[in-house]
Automatic annotation (TrEMBL):
InterPro entries: Centromere_Mis12 (IPR008685)
Family, similarity comment: Belongs to the mis12 family.
Identification of the protein by name: Protein MIS12 homolog
A Gene Ontology cellular-component term: MIS12/MIND type complex
Any one Gene Ontology BP term: kinetochore assembly
Amino acid sequence: MSVDPMAYEAQFFGFTPQTCMLRVYIAFQDYLFEMMLVVEGVILKKLDAIPGCQISPSQIRKCTEKFLLFMKDHFDKLFGRMEEVLLQLVLNIPRNVLLPEDKVHEQYPYSKEEFQALQQELQQLQQQCRAETAAGEALRAELEEQKVVMGELEKILQWFNGLENICREHGTGNFKESFAFLTQNSKKLQDVLKDVVEKSKKMEQHEQLL
């Protein structure tokens, strides 16, 4: 069987010519085997009708197999010639014939070097596209982070506004004075907490002694 890929023919027919010839060969071969079985059956029936015939079915089978090998050998030779003719004269597209879908190549011909240059340009464009996509994703991630930061800043501003309102309610309008007032109260609270902790420790030690 031909080893030529015949890619252009496969594009036109929708199948490779070699595949077509292989299927034809298998079909003929199957028909040959079936025909030999039919011939063998007819011979066995004829022999059964002959009185005193000493030819056994196994001998008939051996003869049938020999004849089958003889036929197959001649069939392979004939099929080889038929395949060569069909692949060259029937299933072959001449090199000067251009398929309709390939007319664009005739209108816009490109050399091998030009095609390689186009491929390189396409690869560069793909790389740029991937880089821009990655940059866009990074910007979106940064925007999400900025939204989170803005939310936290808004919370802080609300806290300061609430703090300022509390200070005004207590008669302290200046923010610096309010902050100093809160700092002093915080120190007082820390001192009270420290005093409570020390007293708690002394009470625990007293209870342990009792």
